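User: I'm putting together notes for a lab meeting next week and I want to include a structural view of one of the chains we've been expressing. I don't have a solved structure, so I'd like a prediction I can at least talk through. The sequence is below, exactly as it appears in our construct file.
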Amino acid sequence: MTNVDRFRPYRLRPNSDDILFYHVYDSLSETPFVTNIGIISGKGLNCTTPPHAVITYREFANHLNCDNREPTSFISFSRNSKDAYEEAMRRMGQIRVKDPHGGPDLERNPKSVRIAIASASAMDNTKTFYFSTLDLIDMLKITSDSYISPQLRENEWFVLGYIPTDAIVIDVVPEVFHQVLGVVDRRQG
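Assistant: Thanks for the context. Below is the predicted structure for the 189-residue chain, given as structure tokens.
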């Protein structure tokens, strides 16, 4: 199997239920949702570079390293709404963040914490390149790695480069997340 064959995005099976993904971001995020644009990875959008040239073990490891504040080619999503809500609440409570370059601590605006909800069927329609941690482990032929926890394997998903606005169902503050989630879930069912 060639590299090109190995690097394929996830796609919903015909007649399957839609999948919702939750992206938590704030004033310090490299990947905020921007109205009429969408979400662009910290390294930006490069449509001319094939995925197998961008998706590398090093890039993946840098993205998963919470101490790394350098931009990567990935945008993280959770498939679990509870995990997304807990991450949003954690960020709201953590105002000071260590500067990775040794400068003064960075200050997060707690009111800037938001959760963007994306739809897999909408991403399929826009040809967005998204995949699960398990997909990525298979693409990169990773046999074992201590920093990839079982919970991460099940719930962490990634987008390469860019998510257009059309794939975002709604963008909300954590305080109303559960109310909105009920409405979105009813629309999906």
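A couple of points you could mention at the meeting. Residues 81-93 form the longest helix (13 residues). The domain at 16-188 is CATH 3.90.210 (Heat-Labile Enterotoxin; Chain A).

User: Perfect, that's what I needed.
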